[in-house]
Task: structure prediction
Amino acid sequence: DVYPRCPPKDLHPNAVTGLADHEDVKSDLRGVKPATRPGARTALEVLRRHVPEDVLVLSEVAMVWNLAADTVRTLWDAGEREYGPIDRMSLPGTGDLLWKDRDGRPHVSDIKTGRVSYLPSAASSGQLGALAAMYQLAFGLEAPIRVSYLSTQERSFLPVAELTQDNIDDLKGDLHYHLKALPLSQPNPGKHCWKCDAKAICPGHRKSR
Result:
């Protein structure tokens, strides 16, 4: 199977803005060109208030996590999240930011350019937990791993959490169970569909229109 990409015409305008901001942040941090978009510049201002300029920050690293083998395939330049062929026991994801804090602890952060009232806490976020697990496998990071959201609307980091190795292992077990159950699952269309990359080909979404 190939992980589906949602055609640009089907993306919500907020998602289009967010993707463009993320690409602008990546270009700046990789030294390609300075960020010009307001959202990207705000994200970088918040980042640099907490992370010195001389600290290496990895940005927009695309990964495919095979939970059956517990391995990660890293794609440095995936381009619009083109993860390539994956099987049903693999989970694709792109990490926005990774760096090491002054005490040497790894810190994974996800940039949010829209409203943040709907977000779970960093400690209970499946998204941040999965990204921490992926980064750990990809780069041999030691737990605990700090996780956070960077909000451009709030112009700050939201409360930071630390994930222990037990936290990460528990998440792996949960994800493994749910991925094995996916063939038995049915589409569940709802308000969350606007940000799904598979919306254009999802039979549940087509029926709900």
Notes: The mean pLDDT is 87. Strands lie at 58-66, 71-75, 90-100, 106-112, 145-151, 156-157, 161-163.
